[in-house]
Design brief:
mainly alpha
Amino acid sequence: MVLSKPIFNALGFYFEQLFNHPIRTKAITCCVIATAGNYASQCISGNKVLNQHSLLAYGIFGLLFGGTIPHYFYAWLERVVPEEAAFPIAKKLFLERLIYSPLYQAFTLYVLARLEGKSHEGALNQLQSLYWSVLTSSWKYLTIIHLLNLSVVPPMLRVFIINLVGFFWTIYIANKRRQQAKRDK
């Protein structure tokens, strides 16, 4: 019980910020989660020296795009597919998995490569070599999570839940990108 008060205070502060400043809160949250996911990935891979450039790239991506793009997408999704529509969850899932996810995965892979200092050609090469495996893995492993997110989680918390799942997805993507870089050498 002693630990519950600080936890409830932190959650209260987070929800207050999420309500009053949703984009800023989601951007900062994603920045922290993406950086932590990349850090965890580097630790799991056994790197003795942390790649700080990669940590910074993931943090910047999370801050600028990882919280904002999903925020606007899920807000758009709520407007386009109202709850009164026939099969709203199926329609939302269809739009998320078959339109948003392929575009966002491509954007993520390209921008992360550019933020890490790769040339346009290098980023496109990495995108071409990783895109299909990352996208099919997303469809395979994350579809049920997105289904639950769309059907159970209140709209205000959907980006937060996706960001928490994103921690593990960041580990996966960072690992895939690191393996690709080793193959290229």
